[in-house]
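Hi team, as promised in this morning's meeting, here are the two structures we talked about. I've kept the exact order from the run log so nobody has to guess. The first one is mostly here for context; it's the second one we should focus on when we meet again. Sequence first, then the predicted structure tokens.
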Amino acid sequence: MILVTGANGTIGSHVVPRLLARGERVRALVRDAARAAKLGPDVEIVVGDLTRPETLDRAFARVDRVFLATTGSDLPQQEANAIAAAERAGVGHVVKLSVMMPEGTPRIGSASWHEASERTLRASRLAWTMLRGGNFASNALAFADPTSPLASVFALAGDGGLAHVDPRDIADVAVLALTSGSAHHGRVYDLTGATPLSYREVVRILASITGKPIVLRERPPAEIRAELLAGGFPADLANAFVGAMSAVREGVWDHVSPDVERLLGRPPRAFEEWARDHAHFFA
């Protein structure tokens, strides 16, 4: 039995059908059972919350592998709760979705949260695999809503490049790691696209493919941070977004990894492919 956390999320929603297609038994840990109905009748749904340890033992019972994906500034505690539950249940292997941490780059926002969580997992009795995802191509969906504050955040990156990775590629690697026995135990993989693109280039590609005018709203960091706070973003998350994109502007996140191609035997999906497949969101 494989437990998928974040099964309704960007990566988990791709992991679940891929596991089912391979004949695996899948259980999804979700907060909202109604929303999880889209996962289909072959998925066992368990309602629980990684912030509430008392809800987790039922989800982890009789599970031998776990895909661990969470988000937010309380991620280290959420994942510590999951790791403890996995140890109590005798889970054999945890595949953790993490973020890229190129040598010498600042540990800002989510990188610092994931670094702390990786330490907890390494110190546990569990076998593990770390999937350090680069910037998701799907983050470009922010440009489908001209009023999205995240679109302003991404504008802070300027001409800084990111090797945007298709979430489907991360899901393919996750399924490989979960279904290959011990072959990927103790491994750390950086998962990126093949070519760094700035968000200015991303916007040009989206406009060309969708036929919609898409414009970066470039403004000072302090103004964008204030907009995020006014929109209800917690201060730690607003600071993380602004800090990360400001670092991208300086060119410190343009790392390209060969791991997707090495593991899957094919090149990473290009951003243009993601854009064509999701152009309907911009209609």
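And here is the second protein, the one for discussion:
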Amino acid sequence: MSTTPMRALLVPDAGRSARSEDYFRSEHHLRAEGVTHTLVIDGGPEGTLRIPLVVRPIEGTPYRDAISPYGFPGGVLDGLREVPKHAVDWTATELVSIFVRDRIGGPCCFAGGTARIEVSLIDSSLPVKFRKDHGADIRRNARLGYETTYCPAPESSPEQREELKRVYRQTMARNEATARYYFSDTWFAEAFSSPVAWLVTTRAPDGQVASSAIAVLSDGYLHNYIGGTSDPYLAQSPAKNDIPVMVELSAKLKAPVHLGGGVHPGDGIEKFKRGFANATSRFYTHELICDPETYERLSAERARTDYFPAYRAPRPG
């Protein structure tokens, strides 16, 4: 790689130049997430790196920073990958900092990424065996008459779509999720329109939707993206019955299922997902400080934590 500093540019094109056929960089996802710009790293003859971003004002200041859209978007790697952060001239972006979420499984946009969590995968090309209690619950539900189906999201019925939104929002309420995870109807409409999204639905013996999920294809993985369980059926764990159907779909697509990880290493969510997995990977992020002097000044009054950017860290109390 050349020793001449690569130039970073911020292009206000709503992420269009960073779009691809993969879900997390698709027009549907970038619109849903309100992407405003593309970060372009110009490596000259070595190629370019293009990353979709949401540019935000920093409240109470004349400055701005940026963040990747939700999910695992990474960027469009056109000859450049694993770029050393120090090899880039960030001046022209006029941003204080950038937080980049990378794709699962690599290759990464930048070198020296932060390993956030270990994520669970189900690779249908390897032996698939669920944890004993997971398998027992799946078989019990099948005996009781629970049925799971999948269909391309654009072909799903209005009832299926409304039920997905209902059970997802119920699940977020039970988990006391922050406002960030209460997606709007417009957000869901974009997801349902994607040609690389599928709706997975498990119905109880009475015909009611017990659980539902959206699975999306991106970067060689079928991601178990979002979903939920209806309150009355929670004790039966019907969402477990979604998983074998996702494995069936993943085998057709030749793309391992990505289940995600926990909130914290070793927590109950991580252990639950590992009970289905036969492989693992890592989720990486990149913390880019474009204007070190301003970053330090804005962060001076905040307690030092791992939160990035530090000046956006929640204040105590």
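Starting points for discussion:
The helical segments are 27-32, 132-144, 158-174, 185-193, 242-253, 268-274, 292-299.
The longest strand covers residues 279-289.
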